Structures are given as structure tokens and as C-alpha cells.
Amino acid sequence: MDLVLGVADRFFFSPYVYPASWPEDEPLRQVLGLLVLTNLGAAILYLGLGALSYFLIFNHDLMKHPHFLPNQVQREIKYAMTSLPWISLPTVALFFAEVRGYSKLYDNVHDSPMGWPGLILSMVSFLFFTDMCIYWIHRFLHHKLIYKHFHKPHHVWKIPSPFASHAFHPVDGFLQGLPYHIYPFLFPLHKLLYLGLYVGVNVWTISIHDGDYRLPRPLQPVVNGAAHHTDHHLYFDYNYGQYFTLWDRLGRSYRHPSALEGKGPLDCIRRMEQHNQARGPLDGGPGRREERQGRIEETKEKEA
């Protein structure tokens, strides 16, 4: 984050915000700058990427599903935007430690112990390390003594939209993001690569909530995509992984996505619409609302 902070100091904070007498490397100034940048960056990534996904990728037919809540998108955004500032507080502490030089981040490729191959290796190891850590943190958050306090709010969104991606309780959000910040304190990592991976992580987090269940067949057993993660929201005890299915398979929590078997949310909606067409307008006469509710409950039971 020192690269981002340096650019912000040069073009914004130093000329327009802070007095010239306040050195750029003064700790309090760095903390304040990081706090602003972290919150601003999180909001831009979440709202910007979330909006792109929502309008360009998300299948809006999913909003017809009986588990899709009234005003859900607005509620997801409100919850996320309330949580992100709280998540930023401990995150800034870790960014501050990076800026002060306590991490193993480096500026130039030749500073890597292995040069360019080390750069590639660090990218791969980052993905596998964070995937492993998030799997176990995620399972921990599902423990019966922990779940209702911290992780349950995220499972309110059984059929998530892209805006559910960051709609976590602050403790939940920080814990699941912690592996990304721990990695550069344990292993060498190029600063620009770290920033790129950080943005990529946010893109991926949104993508597994975007309702686009398509995945090339060879990747379906390996990659934890939106279809896999939607089943986690629906069935609770499966598919905890972030990028890959490896740890779910090792931990015996893997479930082949129902959406790839013709039993997913969109299939549920199609069945409901077929019922509706066969039986006529839902609200066309006495008792129709009760009939509709009965069919919804029947569909829920079939999905479960």
C-alpha cells in the first residue's frame, strides 16, 4: 500500500490536504491517509465492480426465486456499506505495518529470491495459501457457537446478487480477508503483483455471487465458481472454498453444483413458471394467493 499512499500524497494529500510542515512519513499522517484510501478503495471496488456485474452478468431472472428477498439488492448494499468502514480499521493496521517496512513486499523483480520465476511462483502460492486459509476460516465461522453471531448475516442472501459479495458482518469480513494480508508478511511478494492480486480477489469474490453458473466442463471439478458457491448459500455445509474445490474434497464438504445438474435456482424458477402457466393466473380468484404459497413451499422442499 505504500505505492498507493505515495501517489495519493504526491497528487492529493500534500498539495491540497496536509500542511507542508507535516512529513509524509509521519506515522499518524500515514494512518489517516491509509484509512481514507482503504475506505474509498473498498467502496469503489465494491460498488463499481458490483454494478458492472449486476447490470452485465447477473441473471435477473434469479430475482423471481422464492428465496430472493424483497428489496434484497438495496439491503445487500446497505449492509456492506455499513460493514466496510469497520472492516477497514484492523485492515489499516496491517497496511500500516506494510508501509513501515515490516512485510516481505519488494519493489523490483531482481529483489525476488528467484527473479521472474519467483514472481510467478508467488502468484500461484498466494492463491493456494489464501484458498487453504479461507476454507478453514470459513468452516470455523460455520461452527454452531460462532455462526449465529458473525456469519449468519451473509447467509440471509440464499440467492445472492453480486452485491452480496461484501455484505458480511465486520468480524466475518475481516477474518475471511485476513489471509490476503498475512501472506506478504510470511512470503516475498512484488508490490505491484500484490495490488493486482488484491483487486483480482475482489473481482473473484463478486464473480462467485453473480449468478452466472456457466463454467467450462474441464474446470467444473476443480474451480469453485458461482454454481458451487450458490449451493453453499442454499445448503449451508458444502463448498466452503474460495477459488478451488481442493480443500472441500479433502475436508469432505464438496458438493457437485445443483445448477450443473439441472436442479439449480434457475431450474426451480422454470418449474414454477411452468406450474403457473398450467394453472392460470396466480391471483385470478379466491384462494389463488394461498395456492401460490403452497407451490412455493413445494418447490423449496424439492430443492432441499
From TrEMBL:
Pfam entry (one): FA_hydroxylase
Q: Where is the composition biased (Basic and acidic residues)?
A: 286-304
Subcellular locations according to the entry: Membrane
Region described as Disordered: 274-304
Keyword annotations: Membrane, Transmembrane, Transmembrane helix
**Which regions span the lipid bilayer?**
31-58, 79-96, 116-137
Sequence ranges assigned to domain Fatty acid hydroxylase in this UniProt record: 124-251
A Gene Ontology cellular component where this protein is annotated is: membrane
Q: Which InterPro entries match?
A: Fatty_acid_hydroxylase, Sterol_Desaturase_Related
How is this protein named in the record?
Answer: Fatty acid hydroxylase domain-containing protein
Annotated source species: Coilia grayii (Gray's grenadier anchovy)
What taxonomic classification does the UniProt entry list for its organism?
A: Eukaryota, Metazoa, Chordata, Craniata, Vertebrata
